[in-house]
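**Reference record**
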Amino acid sequence: MNELNKTENTNALLVGVDTGTTGSSGIERSLDELEDLAKTNGFHVLGRVVQKLERIDGATFVGTGKLTEIAEMAEEMEAEYLIFNGALTPAQTRNIKETVEFKISDRVNVILSIFADRARTDEGKIQVELAWLRYRLTQLTGRGVELSRLGGGIGTRGPGETKLEQDRRVIRKRMAVLRAELKKMEGRRMRSRQLRIRHEMISAAIVGYTNAGKSTLLNRLADTDLAAGDQLFMTLDPTARRLDIEDGLSLILVDTVGFIRDLPEFLKEAFRATFEEAATAELILLVVDISDPDAASQIEIVQKQLNDLGAGSLPVIYVLNKMDKMKASAYHDVMMILRNEKAKCIVPISAVTGAGVEDLVNRLSSFVEESFVSYRAHIPYRDAGMTAHAREYGSVKEERYEADFIVLEGRIRKSRIGPLLPFIV
C-alpha cells in the first residue's frame, strides 16, 4: 500500500509555492509542518525551496524553469526525493517525472504513509487502506491518458484503456469490501455509544491539533499507558477510558485522531467515524500545544473542523498543554483568540509533569456533578424497582430498609429524575 520506497533518513528537499494568500509567514508555517511530517515519515530534510507565484502551476506545480533549478540544487545536495507541499495532480506527477530524475512525493502521500505506519487496530488499518485506495483512484485518471496510447484507434478500445478499467474495477471492488467491514465495526461502535447514552454516562472527547499531547493527557488522567510521544499522528484509533469521579460518578474520556491543516477530503471521509466521536460527546477538551508558535492558528483549524462535524456548539474546556515549555508569544496569541471568543474555561497544564492536572480534574468533576441532582426518597415496597432505576442512572449513597418504605439517597442524572419525583422528600 505504501509507495514511498525509501530507507530510514532518506535525503529529501521540500518544494513549496507562496501564492501570498496566507501572509508572509503562512508558507513557512506550512513548510515547517511538512518538514515535521517528512521527519516523522523517516526522511532527512536537507532544505526547502519556495517559489512565489499567483497560483500553483497546473503543469509542474512550480514553473518549469524553477523545476530545473530545483533539480540542479537537489543533485548538488545529494537529495533522493522532492516532496511537494500540496497534493500533486496526476498530470503534475507525470510532467515532473518527465522533467527530473528524482523520486517525488507530496504532502498527501507523506501523511498516508504515516497513517499506514501508525494504524494498530483492524479498524484503523481498514480506514487507512480505504483512504489510500481513494487516493490511487484519483491518480489513475491521469495515468489513463498515458496508457491509452499503447493501442487502439478512433472508435476502438485499446489495451491501455482496458488496463485502466481493470485497475479501477479492482480498486472499487476492494473499496466495497473495506466499506462493508468498516460498516460492521461502525455498528459495534454505535452500539457502544448507545449503551453509554442509555446509561447516561457522560463522555468528553479529547481533541486538538496533531502532537498537542492528547494521548499523554489521557494517560495522565486515566492512569493508562497509551502510546504517546513527540511525533505527529501517534493516535489514529479512538480510545475510550473511564475517569472515576467521587461518590461513584464517572466520566468517559475519548482520545481522537489529531487534526491538521489541509487534510485531504478523502482522508476526512475515511476517518469520519473516528472524528464523529467528538460530535457525540457532551464535552470537548480542546488540547493546545502552548509551546508551538503556531498554536493560535491551530486552535482556529480545530474549531473549524469541529464546526464541520456539527460539534461546534458543545461546551469546551481549553487545555493549554506543555506549559513547562511555553512560548510567551504563543501564549499571548492564544489568549487573545480565547478572550475574543469569550472562552469560559481555560486550564493551563503540563501533561508530562502533572502541573495543573488536578485543576483540570476538578473542572471535569464539576461538569459531571452539575449534570446530576441530589435527592432523598422514600420508596414504597410496591415500587422497589425504583432502586434499580436510581442505580442505573446515578449513584446511591444510602439504601436503608424501614418498616413501610426504602430510604434512598444519592444523585441521579437530571434528565432521569422524573420517575423518582413522587417519592422525594
